[in-house]
Structure to design on (250 residues):
């Protein structure tokens, strides 16, 4: 991307000090961006997205209803899907229409756009261990052709013992407001995405697929220049440099 990309605000759950999405972390997020009725029905994943979206937009000083948004989740609404499968095979075979409606990959994007009255561009991506990298690539492409800011958020629930036996990690979410227009709220500047094929087969990893998004938030808040690996365990690696922006340079 030829234009610079700046980070205006960030959010994370658990907080940026949380340890890689520890399953012993805080209870279900409050999801204040959703209406009270929506909060009562929201899955953990949708609540995670709502929570970090509010954190990031507040930090950026922008209204969430005015921003285009890009959501990423490697596995999507797996908790809801599991409940549907259990209902199908252990119940009378009838599925809950409400749960079925909330099992699609863009549930959070749809719920948030409705709750906020947001009519701007929104999309949901899934790319396995490459999810965080692809969300950023989509955001960079959007900012290349559209002046302004975009909300990017990544989240995944904890590992499922049924679908991922032997793998253990907790739920995790992180969000950033990115912009191609610097201002007083700038926290950091992002370099271009760099990709390379691994020389050796990647080692199997068992962390939450969205952990690199939390690492990005931590890097921005640290104020230190660093280069991040965005998809550990993937045969094609993506990296991103994070450069702090001092108050004098804003």
């Amino acid at each position: 991307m030829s234009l610079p990309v700046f980070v205006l605000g960030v959010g994370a759950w658990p907080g940026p000090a949380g340890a890689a999405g520890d399953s012993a972390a805080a209870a279900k997020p409050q999801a204040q961006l959703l209406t009270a009725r929506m909060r009562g029905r929201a899955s953990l994943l949708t609540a995670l997205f709502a929570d970090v979206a509010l954190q990031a937009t507040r930090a950026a000083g922008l209204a969430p209803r005015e921003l285009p948004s890009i959501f990423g989740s490697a596995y999507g609404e797996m908790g809801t899907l599991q409940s549907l499968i259990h209902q199908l095979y252990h119940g009378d075979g009838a599925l809950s229409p409400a749960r079925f409606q909330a099992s699609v990959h863009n549930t959070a994007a749809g719920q948030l756009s409705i709750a906020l009255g947001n009519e701007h561009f929104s999309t949901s991506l899934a790319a396995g261990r490459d999810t965080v990298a692809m969300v950023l690539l989509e955001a960079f492409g959007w900012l290349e052709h559209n002046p302004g800011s975009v909300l990017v958020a990544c989240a995944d629930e904890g590992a499922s013992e049924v679908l991922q036996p032997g793998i253990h990690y907790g739920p995790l979410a992180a969000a950033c407001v990115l912009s191609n227009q610097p201002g007083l709220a700038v926290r950091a500047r992002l370099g271009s995405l760099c990709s390379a094929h691994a020389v050796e087969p990647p080692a199997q990893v068992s962390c939450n697929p969205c952990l690199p998004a939390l690492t990005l938030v931590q890097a921005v808040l640290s104020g230190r220049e660093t280069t991040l690996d965005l998809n550990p365990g993937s045969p094609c690696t993506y990296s991103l440099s994070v450069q702090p922006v001092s108050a004098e340079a804003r």
